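4.2 Preliminary Data

To establish feasibility before requesting continued support, the project team ran the inverse folding procedure on a target of 370 residues. The structure was first converted into the token representation described in Section 3, and no sequence information of any kind was made available to the design step. The complete token record follows.
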């Protein structure tokens, strides 16, 4: 039986990106999954917020510049509001000295382009059953079965919330402005994107307590839109649904360990964070870049599955993944509290932070990979 250097398990964005990147190095790679995008992936209504580091990786993979024009929208400004009048934190690309803060990308279009790129990768073989490989990279997502079989601890703290995703249209041009509302008990984000209505569409990410999310998912369209417009206060215009609604449970989770002899975990199989900072896929693609870098620099006599080699990857990703998980967890707890002293403090904190440009610049640099 033919032996590969790396078997990638999982054909989502992280798995496909890893297979493409390793194949570009000339490694013999097997990707366990479908060569085609599944109906669920094609119809995915989510929108990803990608930072500069993620965009660089996708450009290197010859994927970014092949995406449809309306599948990518730059973010020039971010406005974060609290739950009291005047509580506002603003970020702008101009203040940071960059052309854009981030890009919003259509999830289905990105999946499709990654799948298309794989068809032209001579070193990547799509397989439908596991094959022998020096290294198995688990990119199977939060419900990875192989992770459990390896005996990896996946410590998960459920938030008791679900995130609702949908595509929206509005009667007011978004002008590249992302909007977010932090309050108790929900976090609402409107991400500017050009599909389906150029210049006047948003991707919705609305994190809500479990029962409230389920009620809104089941609500008639008019009732859902009324709740959404009440929550956004008309700041993004009159919002209407332009797609179906999907949702997923939210949790903070970490795998321990993330590597062992001949195997490694990446993406949601290794860590979950709350979507309030839009960093989930960015962390997964940063895992990809780190593992690719470690394997590119490996000594010629080491195999791809050498445990000492994989520890280099684990060390490189430990602090960034832990820090983002802790940051999102603390932010959620602060903004979920209904205690009046905490509400006063967090709203004053937003306004105070807005007046300290150096601190805002530091936060932007860390969060957006600039």
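Position-by-position output of the design step:
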């Amino acid at each position: 039986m033919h032996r590969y250097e790396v078997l990638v398990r999982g054909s989502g964005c992280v798995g496909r990106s890893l297979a493409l990147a390793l194949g570009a190095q000339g490694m013999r790679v097997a990707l366990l999954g479908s060569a085609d995008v599944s109906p669920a992936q094609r119809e995915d209504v989510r929108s990803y917020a990608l930072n500069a580091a993620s965009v660089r990786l996708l450009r290197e993979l010859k994927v970014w510049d092949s995406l449809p024009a309306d599948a990518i929208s730059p973010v020039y400004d971010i406005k974060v509001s609290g739950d009291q009048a005047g509580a506002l934190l603003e970020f702008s690309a101009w203040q940071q000295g960059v052309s854009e803060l981030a890009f919003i990308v259509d999830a289905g279009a990105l999946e499709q382009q990654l799948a298309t790129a794989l068809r032209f990768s001579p070193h990547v073989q799509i397989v439908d059953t596991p094959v022998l490989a020096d290294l198995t990279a688990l990119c199977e997502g939060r419900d990875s079965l192989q992770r459990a079989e390896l005996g990896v601890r996946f410590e998960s703290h459920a938030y008791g919330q679900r995130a609702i995703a949908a595509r929206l249209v509005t009667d007011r041009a978004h002008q590249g402005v992302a909007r977010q509302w932090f309050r108790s008990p929900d976090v609402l984000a409107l991400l500017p994107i050009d599909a389906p209505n150029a210049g006047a569409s948003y991707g919705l990410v609305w994190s809500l307590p479990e029962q409230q999310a389920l009620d809104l998912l089941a609500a008639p369209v008019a009732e859902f839109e009324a709740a959404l417009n009440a929550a956004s206060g008309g700041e993004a215009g009159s919002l209407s649904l332009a797609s179906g609604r999907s949702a997923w449970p939210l949790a903070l989770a970490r795998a321990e360990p993330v590597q062992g002899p001949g195997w490694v975990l990446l993406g949601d199989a290794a860590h979950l964070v709350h979507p309030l900072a839009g960093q989930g896929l960015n962390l997964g693609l940063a895992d990809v870049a780190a593992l690719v870098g470690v394997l590119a620099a490996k000594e010629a006599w080491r195999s791809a599955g050498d445990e000492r080699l994989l520890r280099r990857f684990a060390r490189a990703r430990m602090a960034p993944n832990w820090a983002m998980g802790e940051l999102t967890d603390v932010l959620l707890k602060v903004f979920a509290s209904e205690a009046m002293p905490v509400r006063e403090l967090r709203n004053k904190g937003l306004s105070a932070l807005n007046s300290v440009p150096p601190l805002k610049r530091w936060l932007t640099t860390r969060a957006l990979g600039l």
